[in-house]
Amino acid sequence: MEFISPAVIKSIAEKYDFQFKKGLGQNFLTSQEVLEEIADAAEIDGGGVLEIGPGFGVLTNELAKRAKKVVACEIDARLIPILSDTLSEYNNIKIINRDILKTDVRALIDEEFGGEKISIAANLPYYITTPIITGVIEARLPIKNFVVMVQKEVADRIGAKPGTKDYGALSVLCRFYTEPEIISVVPAGLFVPRPKVDSAVLRMRFRDKPAVETKDERMFFRVVKAAFSQRRKTLLNCLASNFQSSKDELRELLLSVGIEPTRRGETLTLSEFAAIADKL
Ligand code: SAM
Hints:
By secondary structure, the chain is of the alpha/beta class. It is built from 12 helices and 9 strands. It folds into 2 domains: 6-206, Vaccinia Virus protein VP39 (Rossmann fold, 3-Layer(aba) Sandwich), CATH 3.40.50; 217-279, Helicase, Ruva Protein, domain 3 (Orthogonal Bundle).
């Protein structure tokens, strides 16, 4: 595939008379530099990669140069013949015409990579960014790295630290299982068609074990969900509306782990959530 530029993307679209579908989040990347940056960030090192939404195959092309095998899952059947043309020079790519949200990704990784730890890379379709990220993280898949292009605002939420306005349940979930890192900010003008907002490349390296120890992960995430359920309420009130215990019991519990009951959920660190969950 040639060096990617806006002109190359437009000429592929013209050649195949391809009309972009907004409903499928089809904003294709036109920067060779950013494509290489995503592929490098995935730290593939000759291993396997799963790509979500290959589009015209511009990222797939960079991944295939660095990987033993790339499996790319694309929902739009119109793109399948285009991909077999644009990626014809490779024999280490498998394109699957499937909706990633309806795919058993664990079974796919087992089948295609024999359960080996792989990387996942994607310029994600905007309309399903959060379900894909939470789905991949919660599934505890055999992956070492998850590198995604997302709206900048989502990357800021995932990378947010306690006490900041962007910090929320998504930040806690991602930080619990991964080490999130914003690699770069990508201006809206580098996509065709141009989206309304800027994007960012985000890398989440999977941790060998969660960031904090907790007796019961489900209870940990119940506490997190409760703490962020009503942002203007105190932690005590949020917990009281989500758990059976009385307010007095919950106040005692919070004080016993050194947490002021009047604090807001968004100021709590992962260790503090774990301390509450373990007591509950
Ligand atoms: N990788 C290409 C690039 O970087 O230019 C295209 C990225 S574009 C933002 C998102 C791609 O995901 C599109 O090709 C779209 O058709 C595909 N897509 C959308 N929803 C999907 C789904 N549920 N499962 C798999 N692919 C999907």
